[in-house]
Design brief:
74% of the residues lie in helices and 1% in strands. The protein has one domain: Amino acid/polyamine transporter I. It starts with 14 loop residues before the first helix and ends with a helix. It is globular. It has 518 residues and is mostly helical.
Length: 518
């Protein structure tokens, strides 16, 4: 292999660090104050079911990434997986869509956490009123400062994320269990979509019924898992490729169980018959924690949410930057993206591009979506941050950005699931005994089930039209169409780069060659 190929530093990420990257990228504390709140605006009392189904879907998806990660590891992540299993055309589309949903999700975080949660916490506990423009100032803290941390090296990034992520999930698991044990409204009926028509039927009828409400709730249930697969782009820097495979399996299980537990705790803590007021509160999770665990509990959740937003931004931007780096190295993107900083040994230019893109997207979406939500730019800047115009504008912007992320997320996983099926169809392996049953189940049936669930959620986000979710889907599809056209252009104009897309570096193959020599 040519020594001129840009490489990242190998052997600095172990299994624990890779698991922490998975957890940090999924940001469970941030999901608690943001995504669960947005899901409840549509699913109401079915919010725990929306997160349970999202967890099951993502756990099924573990099977897909498990098989793909056993055959490829590099900074390209999914881009490399699909190239090895499926081919160049779908790989390039995946490589283009993956960073888009990471960037959109990163852009959504300061809009909600700095624009809604922070002002809400200060007003709720101390009566302090912040100006509406505060979310703009905090873009620097939640996007640009994390990108600097990602740029200066993988070691300090991993050290920070390891302690932050593991402490975060432990806090959520323990505190939500306490709330469940104290709550008077515990009932298994929160997992029954047909048990609540007398309470929420009129609300659900406006959007197409309880299944539509559940589907829209799952939009935010699934997007709370955006970041899953966050360890995949670390494949080039891992101590060995098996560390990534283990992290993919452990990360989604830990976060999935904890988020379902938290969604249930907040629902029964708020009151199963009162969920119409949950989302409009702005900081309902912090209110529930304060009621059951005192001021210390509410403040700790807020602090963990802010820290989670920060570590999520570090992890997500780090992942997106590495995929752009891999595509630049392959010649799919301009060489600018393949630059490796000589001192930090990180794809610093790719990371800087991601940080600037996420910041610009957050700013533009806030003002544009806010305008169509009925809030003028002057209101968004000069009105109090806790006022209704600012809350409506920023919550709509958050929904818009996370749904764009959902489209990219679903496209990437559609292609991943298809890649597994294509891979094993091409291998034409012979199976005997129980393996004759297990083989089609793991390699065809489970990926197909996950794809069907993704399709259901995507359909519910389109029909009936709901602002700004439907508009976000249109935006995401537009990006997908551009990705297809760009890939077709690469195939014609850069045939050699197209042929080698996602295959320039594969740590799994390198490890196999090393073992063969030994």
């Amino acid at each position: 292999m040519s020594v001129n190929i840009p490489r990242l530093k190998k052997g600095v990420v172990g299994t624990l660090e890779a698991v922490a990257q998975e957890i940090a990228a999924m940001a469970p504390a941030c999901d608690t104050v943001a995504f669960i709140t947005s899901a409840a605006a549509f699913a109401f009392v079915l919010t725990p079911l929306a997160f349970l189904l999202a967890m099951v879907t993502m756990f099924i998806e573990v099977n897909t990434l498990y098989h793909l990660s056993k055959r490829h590891a590099s900074a390209g992540g999914y881009y490399g997986y699909v190239a090895t299993a499926f081919g160049s055309f779908p790989a390039i589309i995946t490589g283009l869509m993956y960073p888009v949903y990471q960037i959109a999700s990163t852009a959504a975080i300061p809009v909600y956490v700095a624009g809604i949660v922070l002002p809400g916490v200060l007003h709720y506990f101390w009566g302090i009123t912040l100006p509406g423009w505060v979310w703009i100032a905090f873009i620097t803290f939640f996007i640009l400062f994390p990108i600097f941390l990602a740029m200066i090296g993988i070691r300090p990034q991993m050290k920070y994320i390891r302690y932050a992520a593991l402490t975060e999930v432990a806090f959520l698991a323990i505190t939500s269990l306490i709330i469940i044990l104290k709550a008077p409204d515990n009932t298994i009926n929160v997992f029954n979509p047909f048990a609540w028509n007398s309470v929420y039927g009129s609300c659900w009828n406006k959007i197409g019924g309880p299944m539509a409400g559940l589907g829209l709730g799952m939009v935010f249930g699934l997007t709370s898992f955006i970041g899953y697969g966050g360890s995949a782009p670390l494949g080039e820097e891992a101590k060995n490729s098996r560390a990534i495979t283990k992290a993919l399996m452990l990360g989604v299980f830990v976060v999935g169980v904890v988020l379902t537990e938290v969604a249930y705790a907040l629902t029964v803590g708020w009151g199963i018959n009162n969920m119409t007021s949950f989302a409009s509160c702005g900081i309902p999770g912090i209110v529930v924690y304060t009621e059951f665990l005192g001021i210390a509990g509410g403040l700790l959740l807020a602090l963990f949410a802010f820290n989670s937003a920060f570590s999520d931004s570090v992890a997500m931007q780090s992942n997106a930057g590495r995929v752009y780096f891999a595509m630049g190295r392959d010649g799919i993107l301009p060489k600018f993206f393949s630059y490796v900083h000589p001192k930090w040994v990180t794809p610093s230019k790719s990371l800087l591009f991601v940080g600037i893109s996420a910041s610009a997207l957050a700013l533009a979406s806030g003002f544009i979506v806010g305008y169509f939500a009925g809030t003028s730019p002057s209101q968004l800047i000069y009105c109090p941050a806790t006022s209704k115009p600012v809350f409506c504008a920023l919550s709509a912007t958050f929904d818009y950005l996370t749904t764009i992320a959902l489209v990219g997320f679903i496209v990437a996983h559609f292609i991943n699931n298809t890649a597994v099926m294509v891979l094993f169809a091409r291998l034409k392996e012979r199976h005997y005994g129980m393996n004759k049953i297990i083989h089609p189940f793991l390699h065809y049936i489970l990926p197909a089930i996950a794809t069907i669930i993704f399709a259901f959620v995507l359909y519910e986000s389109i029909w009936p039209p709901v602002f700004p979710v439907t508009q976000a889907v249109i935006t995401g599809v537009s990006v997908l169409i551009f990705s297809i056209i760009y890939t077709a252009w690469i195939r014609v104009k850069k045939p050699e780069a197209y042929r080698m897309a996602g295959k320039t570096v594969n740590i799994v193959e390198e490890e196999r060659r090393e073992q063969a020599r030994v």
